Amino acid sequence: MKNIAILLLVSMLISCTPQENNKKLANIERIMLAYPDSALTLLQKDSASICEMGKDAQMHYQITLFRINDLQYKPHTSDSMMLKVADYFEKRNNKVLLSQAYYCLGCIYIDLNNHPKAINYFLKAIHTDSINAPKEMLGRCYCQLSDLEDNRLNKQQALLYCKKAYSYIKQTEDYGLTNACLMDMGHYYYDLGKIKEYSSFTKIAKKNILEDHDTLNLRRFIVSEGEKAVYSNNQQKLKKLILEAKKELTPEQQQDWGINMMQGYLHKFLHQQDSALYFFQKGLKIEDPWRKYEANIAMSETKADENKYEEAWALQKEAIKLKNEIDSIDNKSEAEKMKAAYNYEEEVAKREEAEEARYHFMLGIMVAICCILGLSSFVLYLKNSSKKKELLQLRVIAQQNKEITQQKTHIQSQDTLIQCQKTQIENQNEDIQKLENRNNHLSKYELLSSDARNCKIGEQIHFHEDKWNQFRMSEAYTHLHRMINDGLMNYKASDYKKASSAIKEEIDNFFNDYGKRLKVAFPEIKDSQITFAYLVKADVKFSNIAILLNKSKPSITKTSKGFLQLLEKPYTTKELIEFLQNF
C-alpha cells in the first residue's frame, strides 16, 4: 500500500511538469520582438521541419506565426484556428502555451470589435499561468486592458493596469513598449489632474525615447504634447515641439497627421491663415473620418477668422456630416452595453476565486496522498503493537464505566434542578406576557408615526417631480427644444442668444437661482461653465451646446473637463450631467 501511494505522488509530479518548447520556435521567439521581419522569414523557412515534429509543434507554430503577424500590425479576421489551438493545449494541460493562445484570442477579438470577449481572454491569459508565462506577453495583456479602460473613460483603472504592464515589460528588452507605457502613465496622471506625476513620467519617457532613438514613440510624444499646447494656446511650446519634430523625425514621420495639424494651429495662432489652411488641407487627405472631422473644424474656424463665413459654414456642414457618420460607426450604445453587461472587476474576482479553488483542490489531493501514506504506516504500527493496544483498550473501557457511573449520579441531581427551573419558567412566562402586551401597544403607536413620516416624504417627492414637469412644459424650454428639433442651423446667432437667456431665467425661477448657487458652491467657476451648466440642466446635448455657444466640440469637451476638475471627483460624462441636473 505504501508503494502505491508513492507511485501516485510521482505520477502527479510528472504530469505537472511543463514540456520543453521546440528549440527552433524558441530561437525565433527570442528575436521576434526586435526583428519581426527576420523572425517571419526564419519561421517560413523552417515551417515544414517544425510541423513534422508532431501536433504540439504544429500548434505552437500557429501561436508564433500569430504573434509575429501581430507585431507587424496585420489585422486578424478569424478566431477559428486559434480556438482550436487553445482547445488543444487546454486538453494537454500545457498552461504556458495555453496562456499565449488566450492572449492571441484577445488580440483577435479586439480587431473584431468584440471587447467583452477580448477582455475575458486577456484575463484568462494573465491568470492561467502568471508565473511561467512570458513577461512581455503579460505586459501586453495589461496594456490592452488599460486601453479598454481608457476607452470607457475609467482613467483610474486604466492607470492601475498600465502600472502592472510596465512592471512586466521593463523586465524585457521591448524598449518601445516600455517607453509607450511610461507615456501612457503620464497621460493618465494628466487626465486625473496629477500634474506633478505627469511631469515626472513625461521627463523619464522623453529621456528614454531619445536614448533609444525610438522615433516611433517620439512622434507620439510630440503629437500628444502638441495637443495639450493647442488646447492651452501655448504658442511657444507648440513652436518648440514642431522644431524638434523637424530635427529628430524622418521625413515620412514629419508628414504625420498630428504634426501637420500642429503646424496648422501654430500658423492660425500667428494669423497666417494661408499657411494654416495649407497644413489643415493635408489633414483632410487622411481616410480616418474622425481626423477628417477635426481638420474640417480647424479649417472652418480659420475661414471664420478671415470673415469668409460662407466657406466656413460649408466646412462646418461637412464636419457635421462626418460627425454623424462617426456616431453611426462608433455606435455609442454598444459602449454603454459593454459597460453594463461586463464588469471587469467582477471578472477578475471570479478568476481569482477559480484560482483559489484550484489551489485548494490540489492541496486536498496532496493532503489525501499524505493521509494514505500515514494510514499505511499506522496500519503497520498497529500490527506490531496489537497486544499493547488490547491492554490500552481494557483500561479505556474501565475508565469509561467509571465515567458512566458518575454521569448517572450527575443526571439524577440535574433532574431535581430541572424541577426547580420549571417553576421559575412559569413565573417568567407571566412576566413575558405582560411585556408583550406593552410592546404591542408601543408598536401600534410607532406604526402610526411611521405612516405620517412616509406621507410627508411622498408629498416632497411629488412636489419635486411636479416642479420638473412644470419646467419642461414652460414656454422657454419648449421653444429651445423646438429650435433643436427643427435644426439649429436654421436659426440665427441672435435667436440662440435669446433662447439661452430665456432658459436661464426659467431655470432660476424654478430651481432657486441655479446660477447663483453654482457660484457659491464653486467660487472659481467661469461664466462659460455656468452657461454650459444651464444648458445641460435644460436637457441639451453637448453637440447642440457647441452650436448654441458658437464653439467647437473640443472647446465644449474642455469645459466639461474643467467641471470635473472643480468637482475633484473621477466622474464620467453621464455622471457629470446627472450632477448638474440634480444640483
Please explain how this structure is put together:
With 583 residues, this protein is an all-alpha fold. Among the domains are: 102 residues, Serine Threonine Protein Phosphatase 5, Tetratricopeptide repeat, CATH 1.25.40; 108 residues, no CATH class. Helices cover 83% and strands 0% of the residues. It has 28 helices and no strands. Helix 15 runs parallel beside helix 17, helix 16 packs antiparallel against helix 17 and helix 25 crosses helix 28. It is flat and about 115 Å long. The termini are far apart. The N terminus is likely disordered.
Structural key phrases:
mainly alpha; 583 residues; flat; Serine Threonine Protein Phosphatase 5, Tetratricopeptide repeat
Task: Summarize, please.
The chain is mainly alpha-helical and 583 residues long. It has helices spanning 2-15, 23-32, 36-51, 55-71, 80-92, 95-111, 115-128, 135-151, 155-169, 175-191, 195-212, 215-231, 235-248, 251-254, 257-269, 273-283, 289-305, 309-330, 332-341, 344-384, 386-472, 475-486, 493-510, 514-521, 527-537, 542-548, 553-567, 573-582.
Distance between the termini: 76 Å
Number of helices: 28
Largest sheet: none
**How many beta-strand runs?**
0
Mean pLDDT score: 81
Q: Categorize the overall geometry.
A: flat
Q: Which oligomeric state applies?
A: single chain
Which class do the helix and strand fractions yield?
A: mainly alpha
How do the helices and strands follow one another from N- to C-terminus? HHHHHHHHHHHHHHHHHHHHHHHHHHHH
Radius of gyration: 36 Å
**What amount of the residues lies in strands?**
under 5%
pLDDT < 50 runs, ≥5 residues: 1-21, 335-342
Helix content: over 70%
